[in-house]
Amino acid sequence: MDIKKIIQEEIMTTVANFPRFGDRLNSISETGEGSSHSYPYKFDNVSDDEVNYHFDTEEDDYVVIINLVDMYARVWEMQFGTVDGTPEQVVDRGRMYSVMATVMKITNDFIDKYKPNALKFRPSKDEDRDDDKRRFNLYQQYIKKNGRNDYISYPYGDYIIIERKAKIKTNIPRI
């Protein structure tokens, strides 16, 4: 038997054991199944219109900043990233699911404390690609699997909105 036939036979037996491509298309549905651990975090009420949370991974220190956008409508905006970076910076150290689990716990803690009508955030993307929706789609899927029953999430432009189903009216008089 010559070497080409041995290699061809080896390839064919290996490939035959792979799942068909179509079977792997639904792999994003596994996102957020609860298998990732979250990191401990610290709450910091900076002011009436800003809240910060801090957590550390094995290599990086993260901050989650939540700012009040509209006091009357009870709308807040969230961003997160490494302390020495920017929210647009992608760290990519293989801890994405643990970071997402932590940010989701922080989001739920914030909702428990402040009861916003809406919380919005804009996932980072590769600025060199106009059509880059990888993180957006990943976060949207994760929120749908792990979000609260009293809130819905949906895309709005470059933002993901997490909105309360039954709005809370603010009794603050408009000036």
Task: Kindly describe this structure.
Mean pLDDT is about 80; it is low at about 15-30. A seven-stranded mixed sheet has the order 1-2-3-4-5-7-6, with helices on one face. The longest helix has 19 residues, at about 95-115. It is of the alpha+beta class. The protein has a single domain (about 30-165), classed as Aminopeptidase. The protein has helices at about 5-15, 95-115, 135-145, and strands at about 40-45, 50-55, 60-70, 75-80, 120, 150-155, 160-165.
In short:
The protein has helices spanning 3-16, 96-114, 134-146, and strands at residues 41-47, 50-56, 61-70, 75-82, 118-121, 151-156, 159-164. With 175 residues, it is of the alpha+beta class.
- Unreliable spans: 16-30
Shape assignment: elongated
What's the end-to-end separation, in Å? 89 Å
CATH fold group: Aminopeptidase
Annotation field: number of helices: 3
Order of helices and strands: HEEEEHEHEE
> What number of structural domains do the residues give?
1
CATH architecture: 3-Layer(aba) Sandwich
Helix content: 25-40%
> What's the CATH class label?
Alpha Beta
Spatial order of strands in the largest sheet: 1-2-3-4-5-7-6
Rounded to an integer in angstroms, the radius of gyration calculated over CA atoms is 21 Å
Estimate what percentage of residues fall within beta strands.
25-35%
Please identify the structural class as seen in this structure.
alpha+beta
Entry keywords:
175 residues; alpha+beta; Aminopeptidase; 3 helices; 7 strands; elongated
Per-chain topology:
Elements: H1 3-16, E1 41-47, E2 50-56, E3 61-70, E4 75-82, H2 96-114, E5 118-121, H3 134-146, E6 151-156, E7 159-164
Parallel strand pairs: 4-5
Antiparallel strand pairs: 1-2, 2-3, 3-4, 5-7, 6-7
